[in-house]
Amino acid sequence: MKSDITAQHIEDAIDKGEMVLHYQPLSNLTSGEITGLEALVRWHSPKLGQVDTAHFIKILEHSDISLIAKFHRWVTITAFEQILTWQEVGISLTVYLNFSARYLQERDCLNLIKSLVQDYKISPSWFGIEVTESHSIQDMKAIQFVLTNLHSMGIMISLDDFCTSYCSLEYLSDLPAHTIKIDRSFTQGLTCDNFQRQNSINIIVESIIEMAFKLGIEVVAEGVETLKQLEKVTFLGFDSYQGYLLCPPVPVELITQMILRERSRRDSYTSSSESMWQAIAA
Questions:
Q1: Residue 256: how many CB atoms within 10 A of its CB?
Q2: Per-residue pLDDT tens for 220-241?
Q3: Number of H helices, E strands in the chain
């Protein structure tokens, strides 16, 4: 089935509304609060069935830039509309979108985001862009220009899958970033059975966290799936984490319920704590 997918299928799916966004939360390791959401595209085709996201994104990356632009416009508008819906029920969280490195090298990308932020009256801090380490970054000056302008607008910039490319440090020095996300392979390596590998990854991750702290950049652990991994990333000093242990990517209805339940629980806890201290003071 994978070989049957074409760029035309992707364009048709956008036009027919076959794609949706699922959301996966990020949680602060100190407070336990949900601090942001990553939006991930899911595509269920009536003809092709459930289409593997990584596969069709790879096809999209090698398509004409006009289709890439059309896809990003749909993703951004869909996310902005959901941000506004959440605002109506008091949910204010940064939503991160994965943007193609090819598209981030185009001035059209900057113009698209600027115009949509104005049209939807979205606070830039509610929106973030995840830049995946990619060999498709061929024009570093072009992507620097786009990201620097977005950064100056207040849009959050995150370097995704950090450590998976030989040019990780180059990206960190050349691209503006609020956050780096340590790739899941490193997160899982922190507790692997191979002691030598585990020790090496520990040293590497500790160095990255120390460096990020000095640069004023937050560090997120991706792919946390076990309590042992959670304990490890907490001990090492990560700021936040993301992964199936917390919650897999889920439809908007489920993530909304999860956020509202968490907020209700925290409000109830705060209220009971205040009552206790008032009783003691009395």
A1: 17
A2: 999 999 999 999 999 999 999 9
A3: 11, 9
